[in-house]
UniProtKB/TrEMBL annotation:
InterPro entries: Na/ntran_symport, SNS_sf, YocR/YhdH-like. Its main location: membrane. It comes from Lientehia hominis. Keywords: Membrane, Symport, Transmembrane, Transmembrane helix, Transport. The chain crosses the membrane at residues 12-31, 43-67, 88-112, 142-160, 172-192, 212-231, 252-272, 292-317, 338-362, 382-400, 420-442. One of its GO terms (molecular function) is symporter activity. It is found in: Membrane. This is Transporter. The keyword Transmembrane helix applies. GO terms for cellular component: membrane. It is a multi-pass membrane protein.
């Protein structure tokens, strides 16, 4: 299927890789990967993650990007183009970024708030463990959420090549440099090397099926799979860009930043607490780490650099999520990009308000015992994404057949892993995704703890 002149595109391989890597590198790399590595045996978790990345993750990402490039459509129409019986998967997949983007922008607003505090030299104020709780319980998150949405939508409004690609080419190299710089500094802290040993040394006694599930789940969510993002970005990918090579490079970026996040966070926490306070999620980023930074002489400098890094990671991911929603709206309705961006902004502000105020004035309203943000995260990440990924595997593996993806990949160069791709997409990935679905739901409902 030939590219139509009206379809936006990245200028080349570098632009595509950096934009897609920016999508994959997000908050999960920073606030969850280090926690899981510390919990599940350090080096043994890292090894497990790497093996899954070059097999399971590679196959799923190749499939999604190939679907986008082959159909030249976003998720809303791409599945139907491949097989009319799977047209229903388009709307199902499209719901995912519409749910995720608003609450992700709320968290992006939290990051902006902390960045502003450190930039203005008031980092000592957030080292109090109560600051974060008091902040999200107020109406203040609404202001920072709106600012973050405006920044994201303005970038997306400028287009694929002039906006998303240009910003990614600027932010991704800086993100890598910041990660390296902060990691090197953290290694110089007293007691940090104990954290490095704990992080890198394999502890085989902690290896279990739960270790594999944790690595598999982290990889699945980290690589922006089953959100419609890679299909959308694939639709902007030129035919002469090597698909399999690009996926390998995206994985290197994603895994590399996650690894560096571990080198930043685990040694720093070990230096401050001896490793007794490595937790996951917002608690690690907005409570534990500010306490760690508060113990360092150059608190505001390190805090500024760290939250600038986190801001870049959050922004590149929110841009890809927002672009996916805009592309879905434009492909479905035929409207222009600016109109699609305005409608998307309205959706983000409407749904995001619930999450922004969900721990404050709306805290009394809960769904199955969850605040709005937690509920949206549960529905999108734990339920919809694994379902979309599973059905995608069925479509590729048994309906259009793996050859359709392999042929698309080979249009731009050799696809050396095609035999392994067939085995994974038909047999291994569906089983893995069912395991992710079950374990994610049980974890979200606190029946098990991963």
């Amino acid at each position: 299927m030939e590219q139509t002149p009206k379809r936006s595109s990245f200028s080349g391989k570098l632009g595509f890789v950096l934009a897609a890597a920016g999508s994959a590198v997000g908050l999960g790399n920073i606030w969850r990967f280090p926690y899981l590595a510390a919990k599940y045996g350090g080096g043994i978790f890292l090894l497990c993650y790497l093996i899954l990345a070059v097999t399971f993750g590679f196959a799923l990402m190749v499939a999604e990007i190939a679907i986008g490039r082959k159909t030249r459509q976003s998720a809303i129409k791409a599945y139907g183009v491949l097989d009319k019986r799977f047209r229903f998967l388009g709307p199902l997949c499209s719901v995912v970024p519409i749910i995720i983007t608003p609450y992700y922008c709320v968290i992006g607003g939290w990051v902006l708030k902390y960045l502003s505090i450190y930039v203005t030299g008031n980092g000592a104020n957030v080292s109090d463990g109560n600051f974060f709780t008091e902040f999200i319980s107020s109406s203040s998150p609404m202001v920072w959420f709106i600012i973050f949405v405006v920044i994201t939508v303005v970038i997306v409004m400028t287009g694929v090549e002039k906006g998303i690609e240009k910003v990614s080419k600027f932010m991704m190299p800086l993100l890598v440099l910041l990660s390296l710089g902060i990691a090197i500094y953290c290694l110089t802290l007293p007691g940090a090397m104990d954290g490095v040993i704990y992080y890198l040394k394999p502890d085989f006694s902690k290896f279990s099926i739960t270790t594999v599930l944790a690595a598999m789940g982290q990889l699945f969510y980290s690589m922006s799979l089953a959100m419609g993002i890679m299909i959308t970005y694939g639709s902007y990918m030129k035919k002469d860009t090597s698909l399999s090579s690009a996926v390998h490079q995206i994985e290197i970026f994603d895994t590399g930043i996650a690894f560096l996040a571990g080198l930043m966070i685990i040694p720093a926490v070990f230096s401050f607490t001896g490793g007794a306070d490595i937790n996951a999620g917002p608690g690690l980023m907005f409570m534990t780490l500010p306490k760690v930074f508060g113990s360092i002489t150059i608190t505001n400098i390190i805090g500024t650099l760290f939250f600038l890094l986190v801001f870049f990671a959050a922004l590149t991911s929110s841009i890809s999520l927002t672009e996916t929603v805009v592309s879905i709206i434009c492909d479905k309705t035929g409207m222009k990009r600016i109109s699609g961006c305005i409608i998307t902004a309205v959706i983000l502000l409407a749904l995001g308000t619930l999450s922004a105020l969900g721990y404050g004035v709306l805290s009394q309203i809960q769904i199955i015992g969850m605040a709005f943000l937690d509920f949206f995260d549960f529905v999108s990440n734990s339920v919809l994404m694994p379902i979309v990924a599973f059905i995608t595997c069925i479509l590729v593996g048994y309906v259009i057949k793996p050859k359709a993806v392999i042929d698309e990949a080979e249009e731009s160069g050799p696809f050396k892993g095609k035999k392994l791709f067939v085995i994974i997409i038909k047999y291994i990935a569906p089983i893995c995704i069912i395991a992710i679905l079950i374990s994610s739901i049980l974890n979200s409902l606190h029946i098990i703890n991963i």
